[in-house]
Amino acid sequence: SEKLKRFPGLFWQTVWRVGRDDPRRVVHALKVGLSLTLVSLLYLLEPLFKGIGQNAIWAVMTVVVVLEFTAGATLCKGLNRGLGTLVAGSLAFFIGYIAEKTGHVFRAVFIGTAVFVIGTTTTYMRFFPYIKRNYDYGVVIFLLTFNLITVSSYRVSNVLKIAHERFYTIAIGCGICLVMTLFIFPIWSGEDLHNSTVIKLEGLAKSIEACVSAYFNDVEKETTQEKSSEDPIYKGYKAVLDSKSQDETLALHASWEPRHSRHCRYPWQQYVKLGAVLRHFGYTVVALHGCLQSEIQTPQHCRILFKDPMTSTTPSKSQPRLFLGSNKNQATNM
Amino acid sequence: SEKLKRFPGLFWQTVWRVGRDDPRRVVHALKVGLSLTLVSLLYLLEPLFKGIGQNAIWAVMTVVVVLEFTAGATLCKGLNRGLGTLVAGSLAFFIGYIAEKTGHVFRAVFIGTAVFVIGTTTTYMRFFPYIKRNYDYGVVIFLLTFNLITVSSYRVSNVLKIAHERFYTIAIGCGICLVMTLFIFPIWSGEDLHNSTVIKLEGLAKSIEACVSAYFNDVEKETTQEKSSEDPIYKGYKAVLDSKSQDETLALHASWEPRHSRHCRYPWQQYVKLGAVLRHFGYTVVALHGCLQSEIQTPQHCRILFKDPMTSTTPSKSQPRLFLGSNKNQATNM
User: Fold this and answer.
1) Are A38 and A32 in contact (CB under 8 A)?
2) A123 vs B32: CB contact, 8 Å cut-off?
3) Helix or strand or coil: residue B157?
4) CA–CA distance from A299 to each of A208, A219, A220, B274 (Å)?
5) B174-197 residue pLDDT tens
6) Looking at the partner chain, which of B28, B61, B123 has a beta carbon nearest the beta carbon of A144?
């Protein structure tokens, strides 16, 4: 019951912290709510409903599934979805066309076989590294749409009409998603990638600085060792170490964003490479940190001997900021 | 055209390599194909079709979306989906019940407001770390189902009947997924997690061994430096460094698998902790590797002095295998 009593407090604390850490999350939540309401109007308003009918459901589905946090992620998912649906539709009609020429029983066998073969090969293709990285979602949608159309075309005759009507509502859903993601408080993956790279560089610089100062002034070492999670050295390199998958996802989504490709292909892959180098540097900082915590230590009077050359070559906090700061402005203004 | 000529060769090479790396992928692809064919039979066979009708579509959808590579992932997704659908259905009926009491125009405004509020709060809740980690998919399904039911209940009167019919077909789809994932060549996340931990331990041991041997016999150093991707030291620790997210996903899915929880709660989180320790050790190996590649080197006659104590304490290749080998058999036989 003690835990239950504390639950509302913890809950509101989480609500507040999630919003404070990144206020864009609140904006994104409002955008989703607004898009869903707009799409529901297709259904709720009498005149619009008469034209579109039951198929408004598909607009709702598109908005829920496609609208993502960043513009790049939304575009990537939307295009994957569109491409998957188109390819699946074409293939399903082709197979339906062949099946139509044959008898009723043979037709069922033919459709069953096609479902098995396409299902198996498509699922297997999802394991190919290139497809998994770029088109995984599109392949799932392809499989889904192909099965829905093939199976329902066996009983329903006017599949083409249904597909035609659905296409319009899906296009409306996609349109709302595009407007929301590109024009109303857009959130860019590329900006996130840039900022996280800046933060990682700064964190590493702080770590190195803290390492050097801890090595040469070991008076207060005993007190900091206890609370290792608040150690400035650990705090500096923590974000760098496991950043690989996040970097790669951001770079993938950023490459879909139209903002930078007007002038030139913005080199997002270079950020991924820079991230790999930063991680490698981070590993060395971890090793340095381990040296500081080991039991066998160099006596203080030896350390003094190379204090001056060391402290003069250590990067100051402001250096990485200078290094990437100008680029940062460039990137956000371009 | 040179590239186009080589494409079929590259394609078949990828097909072959993907299957050889993990033959369970072929099994999984066949399982998906078989499940889809079984579900299509609901539609293709006359007697079954009469009972189920158009709703067979939902069984197809369930199989495509829920059936995942490992048993844990399938269970996690299926339960998330079921839970999300149930909660969304209850809430939608509650809101529909309130809306029914009011006039036609006010009802539309009420439904629109509900869609906006639920859409915004649900999307915001997806950013909570606890929900993102465990129930992200369930929350998306909740939002989707809630909107579909609320919006369509405004026009259609027999929503309860539709929901009832759909429930059966979704249950059939889930049943096929469960049988396929748990009883026909099951693939366990827990086993994957255990095996990857064993492989990482062995890789680190090989790296350390290679480091020590490279340090004391630098005759062949020049030749190995060129092809750094085939360097045995790099090959050993490569898999360890970026394993965090993979470990956590496998442990999360493994905790859903029923196999081990019969006897006791199997400590999957301990594997995650062991993985963190292994990564930390891996960072030290990276630093050691860096020392081997640096320009300033200890002369060979100094190295000889501590060769014997070093080589006697280095783990041999067989040691980690012994350490986890017995556990491995325990885990697979349990």
Assistant:
1) no
2) yes
3) coil
4) 21, 13, 15, 34
5) 888 888 888 888 888 888 888 888
6) B61
Tens digit of each residue's pLDDT (9 = 90 or more) over B11-37: 888 888 888 888 889 999 999 999 998
Chain B contact for A179 (CB, 8 A cutoff):
no
Integer distance in angstroms from the first to the last C-alpha of chain A?
A: 55
pLDDT at B51: 64
Closest CA to A255 of A79, A73, A128: A73
Write down the pLDDT at residue B120. Answer: 92
Cα-Cα-Cα-Cα dihedral of A93, A99, A104, A109, to 10°? -100
Nearest to A61 by CA among B152, B76, B125, B113: B152
Looking at this protein, which amino acid is placed at residue B199? I
CA distance linking residue B41 with residue B37, whole number of Å:
6
DSSP string, B176-197: HHHHHHHTSS---HHHHHHHHH
The structure tokens listed for B198 are: 């064993």
Residues 6+ apart with CB under 8 A from B83: B135, B138
Q: Which residue has the higher pLDDT, A17 or B307?
A: A17
Is-contact B121 A25, C-beta < 8 A?
A: no
Q: Say if residues B117 and A33 touch (Cβ distance below 8 Å).
A: yes
CA of B169, closest CA in chain A: separation in Å? Answer: 14
| A162 interfaces chain B, CB cutoff of 8 Å | no
Percent of chain B residues past pLDDT 90, beyond the cut: 5
B183 touches chain A (CB under 8 A): no
Nearest to residue A128, comparing CAs of B189, B249, B19, B33?
Answer: B19
DSSP letters of A6-71? HHHHHHHHHHHHHHHH-THHHHHHHHHHHHHHHHHHHHHSHHHHHHHGGGHHHHHHHHHHH--SSH
Q: Which residues contact B205 (CB under 8 A, 6 or more apart)?
A: B236, B315, B316, B317, B319, B320
Amino acid at B243: S
- Residue B182: its pLDDT value, please? 87
Residue B54 contacts A, CB cutoff 8 Å: yes
The answer to whether residue A33 scores a pLDDT higher than 80 is yes
Residue B200 structure tokens? 């990482």
pLDDT higher than 80, residue B101: no
- Interface confidence, given as ipTM, is 0.81
Token duo for residue A88: 């699946």
CA B220 to chain centre: 42
Inter-helix orientation angle A159-182/A129-153, to 10°: 140
Q: How does DSSP classify residue A113? A: H
The A residues from 12 to 51 touching B (CB cutoff 8 Å) are: 14-15, 18-19, 22, 25-26, 28-30, 32-37, 40-41, 43-45, 49
Owner of token pair 């790999």: A276
CB B55 within 8 A of CB B166: yes
Q: How far is A169 from chain B (nearest CA, A)?
A: 14
How far is B138 from A254, CA to CA, in rounded Å?
27
- Answer with the residue of higher pLDDT: B184 or A151: B184
Q: What is the dihedral of CA A185, A186, A188, A192, to 10 degrees?
A: 20
Residue A298 is encoded by which pair of tokens? 């160099």
Confidence at residue A117, expressed as pLDDT on a 0 to 100 scale: 92
Encode pLDDT of A41-96 as tens digits.
877 776 666 666 667 778 888 888 888 888 889 988 888 888 888 888 888 888 87
Residues 233 through 292 of chain A touching chain B, CB cutoff 8 Å: 241-242, 244-245, 279-280, 282-284, 286-287, 290
Residues B111 and B109: their CA atoms lie apart, in Å, by 6
DSSP for residue B315: P
CB contact under 8 A, A43 and B152: yes
